Amino acid sequence: MTPLRRRSPVPGATPTPSLRWRVVVAVTVAFAVLLVVVGFAVDVALGQRLRSDLSARVTDRADRAPSLLAEGYQGQDLVTALQGDSIRVRLRTADGTVYQTPGPVLDDPGQMRPPRPSGGRGPRVDDGGPPAPGGADGLGPDGLGPGAGAPGPPGDALVVTRALPDGSTVTLLGDTTSITQVRHQLRWLMLAAGLVALAVATGLILVVVRRALRPLEAMVAVARDITSGDRGRRVRPASPSTELGRTAESMDEMLDALEAAETAQRTAAETARRAEADMKRFLADAAHEMRTPIAGLSAVAESIARDGADRPERLARWSDLLVRESRHASRLVDDLLDMARIDDDPALDLVDADLATIVDGAVDRAALVHPGLRIARHGPVSVPARVDPGRIGQILTNLLENAARVSDPAGAIDVDLTTDGHTATIAVTDDGPGVDVGDRERIFDRLVRLDRARDTPGAGLGLPIARALARAHGGDVRCVQPSGTGARFVVFLPTRPGELSQSDVPVAPTL
After folding, report:
1. Which of 240, 292, 279, 217 is nearest to 454 (CA)?
2. How do residues 227-275 score in pLDDT, each as one tens digit?
3. In whole angstroms, what is the distance from residue 174 CA to residue 157 CA?
4. What is the CA radius of gyration of the chain?
5. With 88 labelled, which of 36, 130, 323, 472 sits at a CA distance of 20 to 30 A?
6. Of 110-114, 245-249, 439-443, 491-495, which range is least confident?
7. Domain boundary at 169, 184, 212, which?
């Protein structure tokens, strides 16, 4: 099995050490330092306390020596009365006789000399009383006076010397060996207890840190789920004000932004795909629509070229067909150009005009082009508005031509002009076959022609052009349910620019 290789650090990468082990090590080291400081403080305080107690006992017994002497204690009896636990006594009488506590230290002359000031560890306690007899410097005849002959072990010790009323000198030595032993035992005990406490604390810290890092593990799990495709997962912190809460909230915000960006990208891609598909369909439909007049023109031209000289009686008919197909092609080209201009910039020429006059002109033109139709206009004789008269006339012409194509040759078309506040409404109603509910929005798409209208002339651009021009004015064109048979198209227009937005266009009532 190939061993896993550690990844080499990427230049400029953010350091990401193990947070768990960093916290555990840092807290453990801090706890160990605290244990050392506490142990040192306990050791020093206990040592000082024990020495203070021993010093107080030595001083107290030294102070009792004169009273014991007055009570009749002499010689070894006085030494026995003054000695105690860790306290040794030496009595030197005025005639030089020495009485002392039995023991190897005081019996050994080499160990009876206390440490010198330059090398001793323990303090030498003296009451400052008169020097012991035996010399001006306070030394006895044998050199073991209070200054140099007081008993004491080679280690740390407490020494108190008193001159008694009968001329004798008593010296008390507080042996600190037991204090040292107690402190050594306490140090080993604290070391063992500290190691056990450190091990237990490390285990507890591991458990606490593992529990504290669970939110991070949850964030990692969410991130992996999102990477796997579950884009809707979120951390949703319960306490956003904490450090981990702010991190989780920032992560959720980042995920929301990424999801919104992905959605926007998908929407843009879908829109682009749809636009491309619409463009391809538009070009295909436009080419298909152009093929009809071009085929007609080609057929007539070939007929004239082939049979014009032999069949002069057909020339008038062929010329009429040529003109009709040329007009069809010209109208189709004009509609395509209109759609391109409206999409790019409608370039409205807004002026103060009378909508009633514009409607009357469109009705009169339709009546001349279709003399068999009965076209009636209803409504007020004057509706002032600020519009582009040419574009409004084009809207009405497209709607009237659409109504004329689907109506019977002797059918009827009604044009109703009404006003409601700052909104003008123009309704064109025919008596043709009507429009199904599912097709009332689809017919406003470019080059869309219903099956029953495919045999009639037209390219399917009149209604899209009418709606685009109406929306350029701030209005709209809609196909609504008529009161009877046929189809009803309603134009909504603001009488002043900016007075009507797309969301404010009212729905035409069903008549």
Report:
1. 292
2. 776 766 777 777 777 777 777 778 777 877 877 888 888 889 988 888 7
3. 6
4. 59
5. 130
6. 110-114
7. 212
Domain count, the chain: 2
Q: Where are the beta strands (DSSP E) in 95-237?
A: 98-100, 157-163, 169-175
**Mean pLDDT score, 463-469:** 86
Residue 91 DSSP one-character state? E
For helices 19-70 and 177-212, give the axis angle rounded to 10 degrees. 160
pLDDT band at 460 (very low <50, low <70, confident <90, very high): low
Work out the mean pLDDT of the chain and round it to a whole number: 76
Q: Which of 185, 212, 239 is a domain's end point?
A: 212
Query: The pTM is what?
Result: 0.44
Cα–Cα distance, 62 to 89 (Å, whole number):
9
- Give the separation between CA 394 and CA 397, rounded to whole angstroms: 5
* Domain presence at residue 245: no
Instruction: Give the span between the Cα atoms of 451 and 447, in whole angstroms.
Output: 12
Cα–Cα distance, 277 to 410 (Å, whole number): 41
Alpha-carbon separation of residue 485 from 407, 412, 431, 460 (angstroms): 11, 12, 6, 22
